[in-house]
């Protein structure tokens, strides 16, 4: 579990992270989203003790990073996949990391196998493709078999196969009961990967909720209904005060309601339904709507945007 409590980081006059409180729970992948410069990397660096908070705390399984006796056994991270010695083999790189963290060198081969690099473990890491480097970065993060994993933009620059592989891998780690926090700019990818979201803008919390709730919060509550008895359905809906908009022939859009309400109403009146679909936006729509106020610099004369609108829970 990761717990941020009133986390604040200032660089001189610049406030990178401001009074940020959220919890990341084990057993599912949590996406960490925010526009450029929102403070995601700074927050992750504070989780790993690479930056000190100006105020507030962030705890990994109840402890600050500095209090962890063997940090690599508690938290693993992939921040920059290119951080390897180019003339060292992947295996030597991992063994060196293991040794300097008092972990068994045999663990290097185990993690190489876990990420599918056992065949190329003897090759110089400097010659690895981006996808292979990302896998090596994941292997390094897993060396201490940690319960908490942090990934900063792990799929940046990868091809669809690489993205798919990392998605399944992260979901597998979460299914083993680990806490997995992953930042990404790729929103459609994040909607497939993450069950939970922490969304920040200008260093402040915008939302912490399930991906489903986040997407729903941006929807307009309309429900598409298709029925061979559309006239009767329209009458039944307007009779109970539900607003109706036209859609394709044989269909209508019921406003500000739920699929449950319409399904039950149709059943009571004996009206046959062929389709009942809540109209959802995409994670992209929700993100744009929620972070619109929170982009660091709005277009137009570089004026700063107002503070993030608070839908945080
Ligand atoms: N060492 C530093 N000195 C001064 N300002 C910094 C420093 N590190 C980050 N910042 C500023 O803090 C803010 C948050 O940066 P951060 O890199 O954490 O955002 P981010 O959400 O990770 O952005 P991106 O998605 O673009 O990587 C930015 O305005 C950035 O310019």
Low-pLDDT ranges: 296-313
CATH class of the largest domain: Alpha Beta
Largest sheet: 6 strands, mixed
Mean pLDDT: 87
What is the total domain count? Answer: 2
The radius of gyration over CA amounts to 24 Å
Bound molecules: adenosine-5'-triphosphate
Q: Which structural class is indicated by helix and strand composition?
A: alpha/beta
Describe the global form: elongated
Distance between the termini: 18 Å
Proportion in helices? 25-40%
The strand order across the widest sheet is: 5-6-7-3-8-9
- The succession of helices and strands, N to C, reads EEEHEHEHHHEHEHEEHEHEEHEH
Compute the number of strand runs.
Answer: 13
**CATH fold call of the largest domain:** Rossmann fold
Question: Helix count?
Answer: 11
Structure, explained:
This protein has 11 helices and 13 strands. The chain has helices spanning 40-47, 71-74, 90-100, 106-114, 130-141, 160-175, 187-193, 211-218, 230-239, 259-268, 283-291; strands at 2-11, 14-24, 29-33, 55-60, 75-78, 148-152, 179-183, 196-201, 204-210, 223-226, 244-246, 251-254, 275-278. The protein is 33% helix and 24% strand. A 6-stranded mixed beta sheet has the order 5-6-7-3-8-9, sandwiched between helices. The protein has a 4-stranded antiparallel beta sheet with strand order 11-12-10-13, covered by helices on one side. Strands 2-1-4 form a 3-stranded antiparallel beta sheet, covered by helices on one side. Mean pLDDT is 87; it is low at 296-313. The site of adenosine-5'-triphosphate has 11 residues, from β2 and α1. Residues 2-227 form the ABC transporter domain. InterPro entries: AAA+_ATPase, ABC_transporter-like_ATP-bd, ABC_transporter-like_CS, P-loop_NTPase. Belongs to the ABC transporter superfamily.
């Amino acid at each position: 579990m990761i717990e941020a409590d009133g986390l604040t980081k200032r660089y001189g006059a610049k406030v990178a992270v401001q009074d940020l409180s959220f919890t990341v729970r084990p057993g599912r992948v949590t996406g960490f989203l925010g526009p450029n410069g929102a403070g995601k990397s700074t927050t992750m660096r504070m989780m790993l003790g690479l930056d000190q908070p100006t105020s507030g705390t962030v705890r990994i399984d109840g402890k600050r990073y500095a209090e962890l006796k063997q940090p690599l056994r508690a938290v693993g991270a992939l921040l920059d996949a290119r951080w390897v010695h180019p003339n060292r083999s992947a295996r030597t790189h991992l063994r060196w990391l293991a040794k300097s963290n008092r972990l068994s060198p045999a663990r290097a081969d185990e993690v190489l196998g876990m990420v599918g690099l056992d065949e190329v473990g003897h090759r110089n890491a400097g010659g690895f493709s981006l996808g292979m480097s990302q896998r090596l970065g994941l292997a390094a993060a897993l060396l201490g078999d940690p319960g908490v994993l942090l990934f900063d933009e792990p799929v940046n620059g990868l091809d669809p196969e690489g993205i798919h592989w990392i998605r399944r891998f992260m979901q597998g780690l979460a299914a083993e009961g680990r806490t997995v926090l992953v930042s990404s700019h790729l929103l459609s990818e994040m909607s497939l990967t993450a069950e939970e979201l922490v969304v920040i803008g200008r260093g402040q919390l915008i939302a912490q909720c399930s991906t489903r709730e986040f997407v729903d919060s941006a929807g307009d509550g309309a429900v598409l209904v298709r029925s061979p008895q559309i006239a009767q359905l329209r009458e039944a809906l307007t009779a109970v005060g539900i607003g109706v908009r036209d859609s394709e022939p044989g269909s209508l859009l019921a406003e500000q309601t739920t699929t449950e309400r319409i399904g039950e109403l149709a059943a009571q009146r004996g009206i046959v339904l062929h389709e009942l679909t809540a109209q959802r936006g995409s994670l992209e729509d929700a993100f744009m709507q929620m972070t619109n106020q929170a982009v660091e610099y709005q277009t137009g004369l570089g004026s700063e945007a107002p503070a993030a609108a608070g839908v945080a829970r």
